[in-house]
Write a structure and sequence with these properties.
By secondary structure, the protein is mainly alpha-helical. Helix content is 86%, strand content 0%. The radius of gyration is 19 Å and the shape is elongated. It starts with 12 loop residues before the first helix and ends with a helix.
Amino acid sequence: MKSYVKDMTVGKPTGLLLSFMLPMVIGNVFQQLYSMADSMIVGQFVGADALAAVGATGSVNFLFFSLCSGMANGTGIVISQHFGAGNSDYVKKAIANAAYIMLVAGLAMGGLGVLLAKPILIFLNTPDNILADATLYMRIVCAGVLATAAYNCISAILRAVGDSKTPLYFLIMSSILNVGLDIWFVRGLGMGVAGAAIATIIAQFLSRVGSLMFDFAK
């Protein structure tokens, strides 16, 4: 059994639940920081129109990210049930199925987001003066939805086997990296909203790579 695996069926329920819950609560705080970083930095260093462009895509991007998170958590429930029952063969099958599901879902949602970004924003009555920047930002972010789906999938698998701390560590790393890259790309390189979107994708991708390296190293 890998060192980070924790059987939640063994031990005192209160202590197990608290130790499992606290990293998730802290993770929600960093998730909010992650979401606000692009808007704050773009608004500070580019201007009001750029801030409005990022904000205009917020609800749609949140929809895609929430779908990824929801599907990952759903597969995590199945994995945790088999893990708790001691069915290791079914755990492996569930993990493989989760990977396939998140791959297909990530590609589908990302592709639709890239193709339909402008029509969706026009449908949402996005003002003409920010439409181009909003479309660019949304397309870049949607192009990285697969990285988001992969990270959520790996995090859900780790939580399913009792490890809620490792996903938090990589979320913190990703949040800090995202802020640093935002400042560099937006202020240092003058890339505007495109820089903020690219910074988000890179941070998510590196979190995914880090999670995979951790899993295989153990």
